[in-house]
C-alpha cells in the first residue's frame, strides 16, 4: 500500500493567491482528516470527513478555507485568498473508520509558505 | 481547556537509558482511545502505540510501552533502552466520540526528545 499521498510537498505562493492542497487516502479507508501544524498552535484538526461527508469543520479557520471530498479516493483543501499567517505544514490523514484502535495514517504533509 | 497536556517541551536523555514522556488528558467520556505518535526531523507522523480506555493491560510495542493510569487520567509513554534514532518530537493524542458515532483525534503540544550519545 502506498500510504496517504499528499501533493505538492512544498508550495510557495504570494499573498492573495489561491492554493489547493491535494490528498489521496489509503484505499478502503472511510475517514479522512486535514490537520495544520504550526510552531505556535501545534497540530490542529481543520476538518474531518466520514464516507466523503464533512462531519466536523469547526476547526476551519475562516471562510477563506474550504475542503471537498468528491469521492473516496480524493480530497482537496483550498485557501483563497492566501495570507502569510496560513504558512504551515498541512497534513492529510486517513483511517479505516472502524474499531477504536485504528490509528490515523498520515501523509508526508504539504509545507505551505505564503509570502 | 486543554484536552491533552504534555508538560515537557523538551527532554535530554543519555543513550541506552529509559525515558518517560508525560501525557495527561481530560474527558468525561467513558470510551476513548489514547495514541502516541513520533515525528522525526523529516516531518512524517509515525504511529507508535495505542491504549483503549477499557484495556486493563498497559499497551506494549517493542521498546515502547504505555503507562496508563485511568484514575489519574494519564497515559505516559515509556521508551526503554533509548537509541539515537529516538530523537524526535513525540505527540500524545486522544480519540473521543463527538456525535452520531463519529470521533475526533486531538493532539497535545508535543515533547522534543533528544538522545545524547
Any overview of this molecule?
The complex is a heterodimer of chains A (115) and B (117). With 115 residues, chain A is an all-beta fold. Chain A contains no helices and 11 strands. In chain A, strands 2, 4, 5, 6, 9, 10 and 11 form a 7-stranded mixed beta sheet that branches. In chain A, a hairpin with a 3-residue loop joins β4 and β5 (42-50). Chain A is globular, with a radius of gyration of 13 Å. By secondary structure, chain B is an all-beta fold. The mean pLDDT of chain B is 92. Chain B contains no helices and 12 strands. The chains are: A mainly beta (115), B mainly beta (117). The interface between A and B is medium-sized, with 21 and 22 residues.
Short synopsis of the structure:
By secondary structure, chain A is an all-beta fold. Helix content of chain A is 0%, strand content 54%.
**Portion of residues in helices of chain A?**
under 10%
Q: Please, what is the oligomeric state?
A: heterodimer
What percentage of amino acids of chain A are in beta strands?
A: over 45%
What are the low-pLDDT stretches of chain B, counting only 5+ consecutive residues below 50? none
Q: Tell me the total number of β-strands of chain A.
A: 11
In total, how many beta strands of chain B? 12
**Low-confidence segments of chain A:** none
Please indicate the percent range of residues of chain B in DSSP E strands (runs of 2 or more): over 45%
Amino acid at each position: 500500500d502506498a500510504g496517504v499521498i499528499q501533493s505538492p510537498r512544498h508550495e510557495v505562493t504570494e499573498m492573495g493567491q489561491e492554493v489547493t492542497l491535494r490528498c489521496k487516502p489509503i484505499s478502503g479507508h472511510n475517514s479522512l482528516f486535514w490537520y495544520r501544524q504550526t510552531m505556535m498552535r501545534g497540530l490542529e484538526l481543520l476538518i474531518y470527513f466520514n464516507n466523503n461527508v464533512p462531519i466536523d469543520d469547526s476547526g476551519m479557520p475562516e471562510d477563506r478555507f474550504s475542503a471537498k471530498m468528491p469521492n473516496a479516493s480524493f480530497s482537496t483543501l483550498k485557501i483563497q485568498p492566501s495570507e502569510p499567517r496560513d504558512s504551515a505544514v498541512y497534513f492529510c490523514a486517513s483511517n479505516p473508520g472502524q474499531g477504536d484502535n485504528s490509528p490515523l495514517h498520515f501523509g508526508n504533509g504539504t509545507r505551505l509558505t505564503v509570502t | 481547556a486543554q484536552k491533552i497536556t504534555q508538560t515537557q517541551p523538551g527532554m535530554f536523555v543519555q543513550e541506552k537509558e529509559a525515558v518517560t514522556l508525560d501525557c495527561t488528558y481530560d474527558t468525561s467520556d467513558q470510551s476513548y482511545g489514547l495514541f502516541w505518535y513520533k515525528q522525526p526531523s523529516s516531518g512524517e507522523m509515525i504511529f507508535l502505540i495505542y491504549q483503549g480506555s477499557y484495556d486493563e493491560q498497559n499497551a506494549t510495542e517493542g521498546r515502547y510501552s504505555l503507562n496508563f493510569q485511568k484514575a489519574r487520567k494519564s497515559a505516559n509513554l515509556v521508551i526503554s533502552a533509548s537509541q539515537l534514532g529516538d530523537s524526535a518530537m513525540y505527540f500524545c493524542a486522544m480519540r473521543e466520540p463527538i456525535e452520531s458515532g463519529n470521533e475526533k483525534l486531538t493532539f497535545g503540544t508535543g515533547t522534543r526528545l533528544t538522545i545524547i550519545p
